[in-house]
Amino acid sequence: MKQTLSELLRMSRICRMVFATCLGSFILVIFYFQSMFQPVMRRNPFMVDGCCRKGSRNALQELYNPTQLELSGAAVLHQARRDQVVDSCRVYSASSRKRRVLTPGDLKHLVVDEDHELIYCYVPKVACTNWKRVMMVLTGRGKYSDPMEIPSNEAHVPSNLKTLNQYSIAEINHRLKNYFKFLFVREPFERLVSAYRNKFTLKYNSSFHKRFGTRIVRRYRKNATQDALVNGADVKFKEFTEYLVDPATQRDGPLNEHWQTVYQLCHPCHIHYDLVGKYETLEEDANYVLRLVGVGNSLRFPSYAKSTRTTDTMTAQFFSNISTQQQIQLYQLYKLDFLMFNYSTPSYLRLD
């Protein structure tokens, strides 16, 4: 009797072990086949966990792991641009002793869109007026629908857009880590000539003439007329570049944002930008951003007047009137922007 009971208990244990083994194997088989039919998402260090609001993929997920075939080629291009920035920052960091930590004051050019979780660093003379218009449409919650219906002066009113420096340190860190961050850049010397043409050759910019023009004329023009000293409305490009490379200008403080380097405005060695758009491919890159955000079907980036654009040929003409020494000094001033955003050294420069 005892032997029979012992055998029954042993058989019961064996049955339970067999059942547990079969159940475990069955569960493993289920997970295996389930994984076979689920898409694999390559993990990216800048990917936001989970999905975005309203059950759709957010801009970061669509950028780093595109689901649409036509976006895959663009993803490769923008990865190369990100790599170029990272490599340039690494070289600069190795060759420079400068170390600094960003403060909220450094973030005043970073415009925040809470609804779409975007951060845009605006760079003057790189379509920033139209980008601000677009950001006003995105953040306006229906108040605006057409960017071009927004007057240009209204686009530059600070209270119409929220910038990152208006947040607490914890809120800043959260947004820098989780939001889609982008900026647009331009060939540095074309941007510089564009800034000069806009701020010093147009009559309506009298505030710039008074603020900077009079100072430039006073410092660098011999036998200046009284009118020039008072109004500063006829600054020559040669005088403007002399002002830029003068050590006294550097001691005065940061350059004005219209001719400050992108490196100093947007801090790409401290902030990881997910996308670097270029002025040379403005509409293509801008509308790619809007597609990533999920508004590409309802919002298009405004086209711009190509007839008034500062070109490479025009820039070469302006640079032909300044000395070799000034050309070298200017290149050194903007060199990091050239390298970081993969712009070749202009052929018209006399650097030897």
Automatic annotation (TrEMBL):
Top-rank taxon, per record: Eukaryota
Primary residence: Golgi
**One Pfam family this sequence matches:** Sulfotransfer_2
EC identifiers of the protein:
2.8.2.-
Q: GO molecular function terms here?
A: sulfotransferase activity
EC supergroup of this enzyme: transferase
Q: Where in the cell is it found?
A: Golgi apparatus membrane
Q: Which GO terms describe its biological process?
A: carbohydrate biosynthetic process; proteoglycan biosynthetic process
**Got a GO cellular component term for this one?**
Golgi membrane
Q: Which UniProt keywords apply?
A: Carbohydrate metabolism, Glycoprotein, Golgi apparatus, Membrane, Signal-anchor, Transferase, Transmembrane, Transmembrane helix
The regions listed as transmembrane in this protein's record are 14-33
What is the recorded membrane topology of this protein? Single-pass type II membrane protein
- Per the similarity annotation, which family is this? Belongs to the sulfotransferase 2 family.
**What PANTHER family does the entry give?**
CARBOHYDRATE SULFOTRANSFERASE, CARBOHYDRATE SULFOTRANSFERASE 11
The protein here is known as Carbohydrate sulfotransferase
Q: Which organism is it from?
A: Seriola lalandi dorsalis
